[in-house]
TrEMBL record:
This is Lipopolysaccharide biosynthesis protein. Residues 231-276 form the Spore protein YkvP/CgeB glycosyl transferase-like domain. It holds the Pfam family Glyco_trans_1_2.
Amino acid sequence: MDNKNFKNKKILFFSVKLFNYENIIADKLRSLGAVVDYYDERPSNSIFSKGIIRLKRDLYNVKISNYYNSILQRIKNEKYDYFFLIKGEVVPQYFIDKLKVLNPEIVLLYYTFDSFENNPNGINIIQNFNRKYTFDSKDAESYNLSFRPLFFSDDYYKLKNEEDQKYDLLFIGTAHSDRYVISEQTAKWCDENKLKSFAFYYSPSRLVFLFFKLFDSSFKKFKYNKISFTSLKHQEIIELYKQSKVVLDINHPNQRGLTMRVFEALGSGKKLITTNFDIKRYPFYNENNIYIIDRGNIVLEYNFFNLPFEDIDQKLYDRMSISGWLNELFFDDKSFDWLKINKDYV
């Protein structure tokens, strides 16, 4: 894949923290020849800060303004080719206005891996951007954005042909909605069918977990001793993928876009079980590699675990990688058809 377009491009990159993916993206851009200045989009990543930004942002505006003014002071003499923003949960309009004054030729590029239902500030600022993308097909239609699903990083590419399988089924995910119930049901089925499963549930804090335990009915069955309040390191996740045959993906019930887990699994040559029916519309859908379950009525197929992974077409596989993702966001004006009309899709 041709990445020469990134050579010496200067990129101002803002993103919320997302399990180290902000650093993976920045480092990949640098490896492709770009000069990258990265800033966390949030002034703070404390539980309190995240909560107040989402629920009552007005109470946090002074801290947000101070944070973005300090960034403006640091970058006032820099000249950027691109402003690359992921999510846009916090960044204020005045910052974008000032950035454009400082860099009249700058290209503004927006991407979101969250639905606008969860991120109203994104709706308020997207009109500023020259290129704008979302991972959610419904939001793409509703807000006139280009549709571009997520990606897998290079670490998963290297796993493709590795054989070191300890688990038949792997689940890794943040604790939310009905994930625990679904994952435990699949684990029970595996146990009954002499298959070995492993599940890792993460919560950002004990306080958050206990809050949901009290007020969210789906958390009532979550066992405290099965929750980790420390997230897995990137390399630990890689090791678990190496040791697993099939990956379980449980999307949020209100989210249509495919999670990063989908691309990590397929990128590493692992088979996938998912609750996301929308996956049937994607060009890499292959019922040999991908098994869809109904979250309200889970039925699994033993033979699915025995069939070998079928390779994805190389050109499509490259598009699914982080390099393919970055190339499409920054340079590819040709609209690739990521979704297809499938007569069997409901």
